[in-house]
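Section 5.1 Outputs to date
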Amino acid sequence: MLNKKNAVTMEKIVSLCKRRGFIFPGSEIYGGLANAWDYGPYGAELKNNIKQRWWRKFVEEREDMVGLDAAIIMNPETWKASGHLDNFSDPLAECQKCKSRYRTDQLIDAKICPNCGGEMSAPRQFNLMFKTFIGPAEESANVAYLRPETAQGIFVNFKNVLDTMRPKLPFGIGQIGKAFRNEITPGNFVFRTREFEQMEIEYFIAMPKKDKDWQAVFESWRKEMLVWMKELGLDVKNNVHELNVPDGERAHYSKKTIDFEYDFPFGKKELYGLAYRTDYDLKQHAKLSGIDLTCADEAGNKFTPHVIEPSLGVERTVLAVLCAAYNEEKVKEETRTVMKFPHWLAPVKIAVFPLLKNKPELVKKAKAVFDALKKDYICEFDDNGNIGKRYRRQDEIGTPFCLTVDFDTLEKGDVTVRDRDTMKQERVKIEELGEYFEEKLK
């Protein structure tokens, strides 16, 4: 087997994603749009598997969680209260020679352009929110913003959830949804884009009397996030690192933040975040809206709940699992590229082949097997090319099992099932396939 760390490069990941239908350049027929990406058939399935599993694990299976789906365009006062209008900005400088723009906090020398060596302009603050207009006239009274995060949709609905669901503290509200940031320097494939999707939780707790009160909840969510990363197939021990973000570098609302960083091919970068937001957000919205966003303890004393926030990006999750799953292995004189996704995560679970496409009896039998299995699993029927090439295609999209209908099938009623990871094959009776795959893919 080849050295995996040497095998994984961004060039190989990007090439495989385009070639096999995971991720395409956005608006490609018009020359594309910088750092915009479209998810193809397998990429869409991969994203859906991640989101569905996350929702199941963190919302549906927990008694202390409920879900939400808030609007993307919100009342602009939301962003005034949250601090985004005043604080959500990056320092921007422009090269006076080649006109390239950069975040000055990411330049080695803020006075020299890394592209052409020209002189950089003085930095200015650039707000990252996308501005839009509501109504027919582009007037300041109609200014609105595409949300830069999903969290505020949860905070402004806190009272609605409290009144309708009557949850007891501690409880959380989970949401999956789009967010938009006018990044100065997006890049590294889907790692940093202007349009992305978040899986976020705001977990509300009683006002802590001591630090250990919120620290215990914070620690429990830290462990939950590590378990989630293991389920994704990430090598948590070797490739995930925890950064305790120091004072002065945390967001203005945070008292403690951990960044979970992952070893991507382009370096160690933030994958997820876990923050203790205190009671900042609810107090800010209560102050600006005039709405009471407090709770009461058993003695009737009112207080503003504090918040622990696990924040996970869908696109960064996709990129991390693509990098983690990518393998190159020597098979005889060839190099086999195989995506070793966890079975639950694989876009296609079972591929069904007739041994030969020009034998109607084999095709008919294979179609019958395919039709039976697709009721319970995402399956793919493939009769194009020889069996070896079909195996290689399925390896590159990460299909755990390939099933071949051959002439023995017609006589004995069994098929060949080939395992993606071991490449071992075994014969399984058609009537036993349901039980077989239930055990393998549960």
